[in-house]
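Sanity check. The docking grid for protoporphyrin IX containing FE depends on where the pocket ends up, so I'm generating a full predicted complex first rather than guessing from homology. Inputs follow.
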Amino acid sequence: MGIGWDEKTRKFADPGRLAIDAVGSKNSADYGAFKTPTVRDAARTGPYMHDGSLKTLEEVVEHYNKGGNPNPALDKDVKKLNLTDREKKDVVEFMKALTGEAPKLALPTLPAGPDGKTPNPADALAIPGPKTAMGQIFHPVPGR
Ligand code: HEM
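Predicted complex below; grid placement will be based on this.
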């Protein structure tokens, strides 16, 4: 998309995916690449793009309408759209229609265990592992 591309220095402000490629398997095609996010709930998730540089959905549609920011990594299929004002509004309204309320989730009441105590299901959400002054250390594999 070319977000963060500076034509003067011919650099991205943030190298994107390239920065997290494993050392030894850096892929130059990942320079300036960012994960495509969902547009679900987009009306509530601004500002947009990885750097928050586009403040409104209207600005996002303008960005796509002009074919993104020209840069060496721009997808060849991203082109000027020449949308009419009405079409731009329709795209914004479409994204607004994908916005809703998050369903409320109620935690279940669990049956008593062999010790006769009823476990609190919220405990299952707690991350196991030691605590440090900085907070809890995240252990991706519980118990390790
Ligand atoms: C008119 C059509 C499109 C609309 C309305 C649209 C809408 C959006 C929106 C609202 C975001 C920001 C989401 C956020 O920050 O939470 C976004 C980001 C993004 N979209 Fe699209 N999109 C369109 C077409 C495309 C296409 C064709 C591609 C891929 C070829 C694409 C790839 C991406 C990527 C990679 C990002 C993240 C960019 C970054 O963070 O720098 N989008 N899009």
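Relevant for the grid: The helical segments are 57-65, 85-97.
Also worth noting: The beta strands are 5-6, 11-12, 131-132, 135-136.
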